[in-house]
Amino acid sequence: MAQSVDIKFIEKAEAELGVSLPNWYRVSMQSLNGGSVSFGGEAWELYPILDLTNKKSIRKTGDNLVLNQKSAQDWPGFPSNAIAIGENGTGDHIVLLILDGGIADTRVYHWLHETGKCIDVTNA
Questions:
Q1: What residues does each domain of the chain span?
Q2: pLDDT single digits (tens) 47-104
Q3: Which of 35, 46, 49, 51 could form a disulfide with 57 if both were Cys (CB 3.0 to 4.6 A apart)?
Q4: Strand pairing partners for 20?
């Protein structure tokens, strides 16, 4: 999706989620706002931040971080302290875990929907 997003929309998403996202994630979303990543032999789609700049931006980012977080919370076993930032199309998510004080951990985890486990994949 390689489309930049204004920091104000990232801050709006943080406010809606009640979390401070890690700086590396904010910078990445600000410049690319979504896209794909690969690790562990799998492709993952990152959820974009809703961009309210114009109708085209809204259309491109409608399936966004906040909406997907709400959906992920409905999965049995999804951690209450996790923010879903992407998915692989099989039900698994890549997540950030929320630490005390509403700050997201800088590490990235693979949440397995079949077991409910989170595996640190930061360096994968």
A1: 7-120
A2: 999 999 999 999 999 999 999 999 999 999 999 999 999 999 999 999 999 999 999 9
A3: 51
A4: 103
Q: 51 φ, ψ to 5°?
A: -110, 110
Rounded to two decimals, the pTM is 0.93
Residue from 45, 123, 58, 122 nearest 84 by CA: 45
Once rounded to an integer, what is the mean pLDDT over residues 105-123? 95
User: What was the pLDDT predicted at 2?
Assistant: 61
Written as one letter, the residue type at 72 is A
**Helix, strand or coil, per DSSP, at residue 1:** coil
**Residue 83 near residue 69 (C-beta atoms within 8 A):** yes
Say whether domain 7-120 belongs to CATH 1.25.40.
no
For CA atoms 25, 47, 20, 118, the dihedral sign is negative
Tokens of 87: 């998915």
Distance CA 16, CA 8 (A): 12
CA–CA dist 64, 59 (Å, integer): 10
